[in-house]
Description:
Number of helices: 9
Low-confidence stretches: 181-189
Radius of gyration: 16 Å
CATH topology: Protein-Tyrosine Phosphatase, Chain A
Mean pLDDT: 87
Strand order of the largest sheet: 1-4-2-3
CATH superfamily: Protein tyrosine phosphatase superfamily
Amino acid sequence: xxxxxxxxxxxxxxxxxxxxxxxxxxxxxxxxxxxxxxxxxxxxxxxxxxxxxxxxxxxxxxxxxxxxxxxxxxxxxxxxxxxxxxxxxxxxxxxxxxxxxxxxxxxxxxxxxxxxxxxxxxxxxxxxxxxxxxxxxxxxxxxxxxxxxxxxxxxxxxxxxxxxxxxxxxxxxxxxxxxxxxxxxxxxx
Length: 189
């Protein structure tokens, strides 16, 4: 992992897991939610400089009325990352609806912008949220904006392979309940 000039806590959560305690300790929040989704008051009331809201569906392609992540979303994540520094970042909370796709991709993009390699970025995300299945479309745009020349996508493919091997049941049924049914210890292996 890189040695940044500062350290911070990272949380990657689903919307149902975001509670007052998590948001109270968060210095910065990134929300990736379906358009029109109501955010918890603790997030909505944060100073606008400490939060970023991206209203986008967890989709690979936009269809009428259902926007997928786009280039501007990746740019917004990088601009937000550029505002983070030693004096103002202690706990970054990134969430979407399930905490496994949009939020995992967004967290990886932010970490790469902060100086992590793509592999290290995904390792850090996986250390706090596992399994993850990052939104490929958001990562394609992030790879382009960050000028990673495919490295972000290559690192994500390794994440996908690991999940397919270790969590095949979840890949076929990605509902939160399917993780609950897994044997204890299977998730962290």
